[in-house]
Write a structure and sequence with these properties.
Strand order of the largest sheet: 1-2-6-7-10-13-14-15
Strand content: 15-25%
Largest sheet: 8 strands, antiparallel
Mean pLDDT: 91
Structural class: alpha+beta
Order of helices and strands: HEEHHEHHHEEHEEEEEEEEHHEE
Distance between the termini: 39 Å
């Protein structure tokens, strides 16, 4: 309960910074809603609507979509009639099995991106990640490297055979399993955002853990929404230090910011912290950087790229980010120093950006 209240208070602080104190439009009101139980996080939606009935209707639809996508991407629980990750993992080695259309879309997206950025994010790495998950849950020891290497022999994304027309998935390697945790939340948030952009409440901010997606500008006179970048060294158990845990604030509209960091899920063995983002090359938690925040339009792409950059050295990641149109990034390095792409500076509070002064965004 203490951890939950801490997360909730920290989230409230972050989005209070984001929403500012401007006078609201006479014809629109700002509303806030918390959604629980999906994607292992608390999701907050802030929206400007003409009345509470509109806000409730739109966010009810957003909640329903989050629930549906959570079930489709769930690797741990089966649901009646749902061809989700858990169902596919249990059955796809025996032959092609039906998968939810959204899961097919996600797997095709990941296959395409993995071909462009090989050796980083791999959703076919479930055999390795499940070992780390079990050890992290027990919290007392590290996996044996021989066990990890044996599992790594069954992580080839080309062994995931997708029949898009039939809507089926087949594993050519019977020991392969999927783990879409590196991308599923961002992919889901983008689907929800598209639903809300098409509604009669297109002015919104969605915050789902380290994933933020904004819609049209807030209807209170400001030009941009804002969201903070967390200091990975901040103590999340100390609610009084919430303001000190903020490194900077980003201001943008109709875009996404996603952070991958070593502080989000971890356990401690012999005084050393081991986080959950595993390098496919070393089969150990990546230690190149402390955190990476990626800003781009699409939340699914931002989620994929934030993990990709986290799994890269700063030099490699910076070259990649600079080569991608419409992508900006912000790194916290192991020594605590900060680096960022040139375009990121245009939307940061520390570099002169604000919610109400026009500046260049994607």
């Amino acid at each position: 309960m203490k951890r939950f209240l801490t997360v909730l208070l920290s989230l409230t602080f972050v989005l209070t910074v984001a929403c500012g104190c401007s006078a609201q439009s006479a014809s629109y009101e700002k509303y806030t809603r918390y959604i629980f139980d999906y994607f292992d996080t608390v999701t907050q939606i802030i929206g400007y609507a003409k009345d509470s009935q509109t806000f409730d209707r739109v966010t009810d639809a957003a909640r329903d979509e989050l629930e549906r996508l959570h079930r489709a991407f769930d690797a741990y629980e089966l649901y009646d009639g749902v061809g989700n990750v858990c169902y596919v993992n249990q059955n796809a080695a025996a032959g092609p099995v039906r998968a939810e259309p959204e899961l097919i879309d996600l797997l095709l997206f990941c296959k395409e991106q993995q071909a462009l950025f090989p050796g980083k994010v791999n959703v076919a790495m479930g055999a390795v990640l499940s070992i780390w998950h079990d050890y992290r849950e027990e919290g007392v020891a590290l996996p044996d490297m021989d066990e990890l290497q044996a599992a790594a022999a069954h992580c080839d994304i080309d062994d995931v055979i997708i029949d898009e027309e039939a809507g089926t998935v087949y594993f050519a390697d019977p020991e392969l399993t999927l783990d879409v945790g590196a991308v599923a939340k961002g992919f889901a948030v983008e689907r929800v955002a598209q639903l809300m952009l098409a509604s009669d409440m297109p002015s919104f901010l969605i915050s789902a853990g380290g994933n933020v997606r904004t819609g049209e500008a807030p209807l209170d006179g400001r030009l941009y929404w804002g969201t903070s970048i967390r200091n990975p060294d901040s103590d999340e158990t100390d609610t009084l230090s919430a303001t000190e845990g903020i490194l900077d604030v980003m201001y943008f509209t109709n875009g996404s910011a996603v952070t991958s960091g070593d502080y989000q899920r971890y356990y401690i063995v012999d005084g050393e912290r081991y986080h959950h983002i595993i390098d496919p090359q070393t089969l150990m938690p990546s230690d190149h950087v402390r955190s990476v925040t990626v800003y781009t339009r699409d939340s699914g792409m931002a989620d994929f790229l934030s993990t990709t950059l986290f799994l890269s050295s700063y030099e490699e990641g910076r070259a990649l980010a600079d080569s991608l149109e419409g992508v900006e990034a912000y790194w916290v390095l192991p020594d605590g120093s900060i680096e960022m792409t040139d375009g990121m500076r245009s939307i940061l509070y520390s570099c002169g950006a604000s919610a109400s002064v026009e500046h260049e965004t994607l």
